[in-house]
Amino acid sequence: MGVLVRISVAEAPAGGVTIVKLAGELGVDTAAELAMAIEELLDRPTNRIVIDLALLGFCDSIGLSTFVDAHRRCAAEGGYLALAAPSPFIHKLLGVVGLTRQVPAYATVASACAGGDEGRLR
């Protein structure tokens, strides 16, 4: 049986940022599902995306690559992609692989939606 991830998309009430919530495990069997969801968002006039990681328990290298690819696509469209609210495990993973140098990550969804340095994780 494959690794499971639940993806939900909700528009933020202000600022035109789309929130993508992940729950479960993001891996080789499920990263394509996230990539497809991001692709569908970018087909609309959406180019500012925050991925809420609060309920994500696991992420492998394919999942991490999906974040980088989505970030590059959003930037090419004049927007951004940011990661938000990672668990301590996911935060450590992001730091160890150096992902937070490429894709901005924030302590909370609100700080990710606001952008800037407040709440930014290193």
Automatic annotation (TrEMBL):
Residues 16-116 form the STAS domain. GO terms for molecular function: anti-sigma factor antagonist activity. Transmembrane segments: none annotated. Pfam families: STAS. InterPro entries: Anti-sigma_ant, STAS_dom, STAS_dom_sf. NCBIfam families: ant_ant_sig (TIGR00377). Belongs to the anti-sigma-factor antagonist family. This is Anti-sigma factor antagonist. It comes from Asanoa ishikariensis.
